[in-house]
Design goal:
alpha+beta; 5 helices; single chain
């Protein structure tokens, strides 16, 4: 069994933040990334809703990160990535459950099914880890910046969302400032 340590990044001087930034930049296309300065600002302001969770092994080697937002009754996973050379070893599932298991509900966005091999692998990963796709609910991720476009995505949830339109309004207001 793997021994993961989960740590929260609480200031921009944390050495792990450089590793988070590097993995963040290579793991997500520009239109799915929040501007890095915005992340640093939320860390500096110690947002009570936004967290950067980092996983390391027993020797403090960096494994990956997960950014989350604590919304009413829901933990929203904004970004989640594991170092490429460590994928497929069960570390991502262990990390995912370490952060999300206590949440009443978990929601995240993924690329649309059949939009690429990696998208299908991500969807499969989340399904194996207890989330269900909201395939019949059209969803678009709002742009993080004015010069970007909205991105067609799909929501996945741990529990059924009773009022998806209201949830999306809350998500876009609190997370995307839309």
């Amino acid at each position: 069994m793997n021994v993961l340590k989960i740590k929260r990044v609480i200031n921009c001087n944390d050495d792990l933040l450089d590793k988070v930034k590097s993995l963040y930049m290579i793991s997500f296309p520009e239109d799915e990334r929040r501007p890095w300065e915005n992340i640093e600002e939320m860390i500096n302001n110690q947002s009570p809703y936004f967290k950067i969770n980092v996983a390391t092994d027993e020797k403090d080697n960096f494994i990956g990160f997960m950014t989350t937002w604590q919304l009413p009754d829901t933990l929203y996973v904004e970004h989640f990535a594991v170092e490429q050379n460590l994928r497929g070893k069960g570390l991502g599932a262990e990390f995912f459950h370490s952060v999300t298991d206590g949440a009443e509900n978990v929601v995240l966005e993924v690329e649309l099914p059949h939009s690429g091999e990696m998208a299908d692998r991500r969807i499969s990963f989340y399904e194996r880890n207890g989330l269900k796709a909201m395939k019949d609910f059209p969803y678009f991720q709002p742009p993080y910046r004015d010069d970007l476009q909205q991105v067609p995505m799909m929501l996945m949830t741990k529990k059924t969302i009773e009022d998806p339109k209201f949830f999306v309004l809350m998500l876009h207001t609190l997370v995307y400032n839309q």
